[in-house]
Write a structure and sequence with these properties.
The protein has 6 helices and 14 strands. It is α/β, with parallel strands linked by helices and 251 residues long. Strands 5-4-3-2-1-14 form a 6-stranded mixed beta sheet, with helices on one face. Helix 1 runs parallel beside helix 2. It is globular and about 50 Å long. The model has no long low-confidence stretch (mean pLDDT 95).
């Protein structure tokens, strides 16, 4: 499966501008079956005034998925009826089918927990023969939540991960790939918001922890690679460490 990451420079709290940016990038990117956008791609990591109207952004994701005959994936801040919000990752297929995942681990250090509610459900979705575990940014620090249960081939992680903790991002992408013998698809943003500077380093990592595609420019760009599920299955069977993994009970 060919996958393209859209490493965007997000304009703060400006969905219209960010939709236009995503449109330009995707039109100039290599054709793919899956396009991945960063966390809160339409607004930036807005935690103190969440719940922008995301109908236009979501409509663009669906229209683009249909046009490209590909899935478009990225998270949006969604306001709930109770006045709080969720950081909701949308996996939008060209048929119009949408799978969502609400971020489980809220970034307390950045105040996300003050206005957002944590998701409770782990979510795996299958697309054209590939099973994807959906996670968002801070989730990457919590390996038990993401532990392989025989149910996925790749992890999609969308993020706003700042330059100041870039070494952690780099390490965790590879750690999650190695320990779960899976692909890890990490899409991060670039640019600045009122609190942080971002340099991307969006990557597609294989099950051995090697980057098969990675951007180190720190600029707005696209990154494309093809993942091979047959090769992944062969490696899992040949080097069967997953058979010896510990089992956990989740609360």
């Amino acid at each position: 499966m060919k996958i393209t990451l859209l490493q965007t420079d997000i304009s703060w709290a400006s969905p219209i501008s960010n939709i236009a940016t995503a449109e330009r990038l995707i039109e100039n990117a290599e054709a793919a079956e899956l396009y991945v956008l960063p966390e809160m791609w339409s607004t930036g990591f807005v935690t103190d005034a969440p719940g922008e109207d995301q109908q236009e952004a979501l409509a663009w994701m669906w229209t683009t998925a249909k046009k490209k005959d590909a899935t478009v994936c990225g998270s949006l801040a969604v306001k709930l009826d109770n006045g709080r919000s969720v950081n909701r990752l949308f996996f939008v297929e060209p048929s119009g089918e949408i799978t969502t995942y609400d971020k489980r681990h809220l970034f307390r250090y950045g105040g996300e927990d003050r206005f957002y509610s944590a998701g409770q459900d782990r979510k795996v979705v299958e697309w054209r023969g590939v099973r994807f575990l959906l996670v968002t940014c801070y989730d990457m620090r919590f390996p038990v939540w993401m532990r392989y249960r025989g149910d996925y081939d790749a992890i999609i992680c969308v993020a706003n991960w700042p330059e100041s903790r870039q070494d952690v991002w780099h390490t965790l992408l590879r750690a999650r790939a190695i320990e779960n013998q899976c692909y890890v698809i990490g899409c991060n943003r670039v640019g600045d918001d009122p609190n942080c500077h971002y340099i991307g380093n969006s990557s597609i990592i294989d099950s051995r922890g090697h980057a098969i595609a990675e951007d180190i420019s720190g600029q707005q760009t696209t990154i494309t690679a093809t993942i091979d599920i047959n090769e992944l299955q062969h490696f899992r069977e040949k080097f069967g460490v997953l058979a010896d993994r510990d089992r956990f009970e989740f609360e």
